[in-house]
Each structure stands twice: as structure tokens, then as C-alpha cells.
Amino acid sequence: EADIYQTPRYLVIGTGKKITLECSQTMGHDKMYWYQQDPGMELHLIHYSYGVNSTEKGDLSSESTVSRIRTEHFPLTLESARPSHTSQYLCASRWQIGEAFFGQGTRLTVV
Amino acid sequence: GQNIDQPTEMTATEGAIVQINCTYQTSGFNGLFWYQQHAGEAPTFLSYNVLDGLEEKGRFSSFLSRSKGYSYLLLKELQMKDSASYLCAVAGQAGTALIFGKGTTLSVSS
Fold it and tell me: Do A99 and B48 touch (CB under 8 A)?
């Protein structure tokens, strides 16, 4: 069973607010990823990390930022939320080889 | 860059066999993955191929040909609960991320 957790599961927030989506894994995985997915649509990679102090932007332009200060923790921050940020955000982690494990996701609604 | 193609939609009936194809182009290759995703849920891992050939796991099998940049997922004895989106993902060369295709929505009818 995968040990990767995302909080909160659901979040409704007003425009202009700063929010941080949490992702933690207890498997000691080096690689961690953030994906954005609208209902019925594809997964878009927005950020990834290969280890502590390593972060890269993905293919989808995003106004969010990430940090990787500890191996197990990979939070995603939106400095000023907008309605266009409404989506599901999925965090995943994996070893150097092998499959990625996904968290349950955070469904964000910006009103 | 990386490019992954798979059909958008497929339909099948209960008890049948269905094959979902995936073609990819990557700079380097470190494995191909298949995931299942039900609506509103996170993807769950189905199979992993890094060498050419067939990997079998119960009702699900996955095949890889690295020289052709081609994989397929084979689902046997289809059940209604197999109605879901099936995602093909590729890990490129070291230093690149895990990229997903757009997914194939499979509808199983009775």
C-alpha cells in the first residue's frame, strides 16, 4: 500500500488568497511530482523534484511554486489564487526506477 | 521532447478482450507504465515494462517493443468495473520527468 498523503482533500477559497497544498510520503522516494488535472482531461505535469533542494517546472505553465527541503515533503504554493486555478492537483512519488504512487489528490475550487 | 499517443475512446462488452495501444517518442527510455483511473479518483498502477516482451498480471497484460516505440495493454474477461480511463506513461532519460498520455476512456457494456 502506497504511503503518500495529500491535504486537504477538498478546498474552497476566495480569489487572491495564498494557499499551500501539502504532499508527504513515507517511502523515502527521491522523485516527487505535481500534476494538474481538470475533470475528464489529461494529467499535466506542473512541477517535479529529484531530491532535496532540486525542483523543476513541468510542461504546463503554472503560477504555483514548490519547495523540497525534506525528502518526504513536497508542498505546492499558490501566492494569489484565481478561478483559473480551479482543478484537481495530484502528487506522486517514485524511486529511480519503478512505478509512481499517487496521493488521493486535492480538489481546489477558487471562487 | 516526449510525445505519447493513445486512442481517445474505446468500447467493449462484458467478457470480451480489449487491446489499448500506446505509441511514444522519447529522448532516452527508462520504462513504460500503465495506470487505471476512475472518474474523480487518483490513478492506480497496473503494469510496468522496461524490457521488450509481455508482462502478465491476472486479467491484465502489457507488451513493449522499444525499437518500435510501442506498447499495448490487454484486458481480458472484461467486467463493468473496468470502465475507466487507461493512461500510458513514459519515463525518459535520467533527468526527465514521468509524462502521461491523454488517456483512453474505456466503456464496458453488458
Answer: yes
